[in-house]
Design goal:
Layout lengths: L8 E13 L1 H11 L1 H4 L7 H17 L4 E6 L2 E7 L8 H24 L5 H4 L5 E16 L2 E5 L1 H8 L5 H5 L4 E5 H6 L9 E4 L7 E7 L2
């Protein structure tokens, strides 16, 4: 089968990842606790419906400031090309807080709808939302009719999902801005904690953390 790859185009803008932290561990615990309920059952576990509703809530809040690029398991990848419509300055931080608040409200609603009170299912309250925001170049191309984003800056944004924020601010919700994003989007760092992330094959990446709660 041949793969149809359309013409690529280079753009520049903000690259955003919204990631539901703790979901993989939560789902595994629920599966282990209720494995007997999953045998010969056509419908997926309720945990899948919950994360779908959470992702839907976040994705709807991201628009129109950001364009959805791709759902990636328990994360959303979105992009905002440079232009007069792009969010800048302090308003970007407030917008991220609004997105996080919508997530918290939907999670609370999901908890109230949860019918099981075992320790594994009760862990739903430990789900969190974090953001990674980078700025740089990216290439868009169509593969089998779908638009895909690629490039070194796309890789940087994804690598930053695994970071050391917990060691700096503890288990609190946050938005991680690369210094490249702070400069390009004119976001004041203010009292944001700073750290430098390092990954094999990449130069050190200075970042700042905006605590969302």
């Amino acid at each position: 089968m041949s793969i149809s790859i359309g013409p690529a185009s280079r753009q520049r803008g903000a690259l955003l990842l919204a990631d539901i932290s703790g979901y993989t561990a939560f789902l595994q615990r629920v599966t282990d606790a209720h494995v007997e309920l999953l045998i010969n059952v056509d419908e997926p576990a309720p945990a899948y419906s919950l994360v779908s509703s959470l992702l839907d809530t976040v994705a709807s809040r991201l628009e129109p400031a950001f364009q959805l690029a791709k759902f990636e398991g328990d994360a959303i990848f979105a992009v905002a090309p440079d232009g007069p419509e792009a969010l800048h300055g302090e308003s970007l931080g407030e917008w991220l807080r609004t997105c996080h608040a919508a997530f918290v409200q939907r999670l609370a609603k999901g908890r109230s709808e949860w019918t099981c009170d075992c320790n594994s299912c009760a862990g739903v309250v430990n789900l969190g939302l974090k953001f990674v925001l980078h700025h740089g170049d990216y290439v868009t191309q169509r593969i089998l009719g779908r638009e895909e984003l690629a490039g070194p800056d796309v890789i940087v944004a994804h690598r930053l999902l695994k970071n050391h924020a917990h060691e700096v601010i503890g288990p609190r919700p946050y938005a991680m801005f690369t210094d490249a994003a702070l400069r390009a989007l004119e976001v004041p760092a203010g009292a944001m904690p700073a750290l430098t992330e390092t990954y094999e094959g990449l130069p050190p990446i200075p970042v700042h953390l905006l605590v969302l709660d």
